[in-house]
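chain below, 430 aa
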Amino acid sequence: MNVQPHPSRRDTRAADQSSRPPSALPSRLARLLLPLSLAALISACGGGGPASSDPAPAPPASGVTALSLSTALFEEKALSASGQQACASCHASDTAHADTSGTQLPVGGASLDRQGFRSSPSMLYLDANGPFRFVGTEAFGGFTWDGRANTRAEQAGGPLLDQTEMANPSIADVASRVRALPYYADFRSVFALPENASDQLVFDTLRTALEQYQKLDTDYLLFNSRYDRFLDGQATLTAQEQRGLSIFENPAKGNCASCHPSRPGATGERPLFTTFGYAALGLPRNPAIAANADPAFFDMGLCGPKRTDLSHRSELCGQFKIPTLRNIELTAPYFHNGSVATLEQAVSFYATRDIDPARWYPVGASGIERFNDLPAGLRSNVLNTAPFGLRPGDPPVLTAQDVADLAAFLRSLTDDQTAAQNTPTVSVAP
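prediction:
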């Protein structure tokens, strides 16, 4: 059976919906695996390829490509200890490859009963991210909220072994699961894996395949939001969105563009709405996180607990990756700890954190416990540049109308998953 190479999640969905009623649609994973499963069946029956002792892998089944196979692996639940969790379980296409809609914090583990303490960030628009590094005293790059993975392949290996995620006990267990896949022969062929590959090589090849999926699927760099078309001179922003953009870029108002650049680069590169840097925002502690029941537990980002090599750098405690704001409309709840439920509330946090702290922080015996998700001795690390840095009762830098306008502008950054990929540079308006 012939299967066309998978161009993108968006294109496959559109093509299927044009020719089948919704009730008849098979799962996308089943469509991807059909040629893979057929090839495995033929091989098991003794036909269609060399004997199993042949060290050279057989050619892949017709239509199987690096993209279709790596996409199947991204959606493969059999790679988890529970058999119920895939990479796609925490990075769903409908939510810009962040947590699925309605999920506050991911739950995994061998019995799907272990809660993590960080939200799953969007995986989109990370091609220019680069490895973790310091530029002077400021940190940039790296993957995950604390940048501890230097490549997408390195990041992909983390959840496979994390006991609150896919929960495999060891690399050998992951390799065993990969070898048991019905399309393992195609995996070997597409990624040139020798028959006697070690557990480590199988694991590393799986990580490479998951990295390839993110590089090859066009959904990861669509650049086709209404704001992109506005930059191309092919769409307009509403009056409210224009006001929001003005506030976003005004250093004395929102000052958002200082961390989330909004204008094209020197040679027309489309803005990514992140510097790939880090910031300590002083977020409120989230009581829905089970780990937070321990008053001695603190998630401090760059200085731990998941990252350990910078634990001695107390000035970095509380800093987390600055995410892209592209598709921010889709990625609720917000921030690394999922402490804020809606986009308007997330913007309101910036507007009122300092002038109305009782809105965000608990009141204790000694007053309002500001920045209570950091130990008291580290709360001076929190960012105080505009729009922060005010005192309780000061006039707001951002009014309620400004917050609404900013949220309206941010919604113009949502990609159209039914449309074609746009160019990575701004087009010249006709």
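Residues 1-54 have pLDDT under 50 and may be disordered. Residues 66 and 371 are 46 Å apart (CA to CA).
thats it, cya
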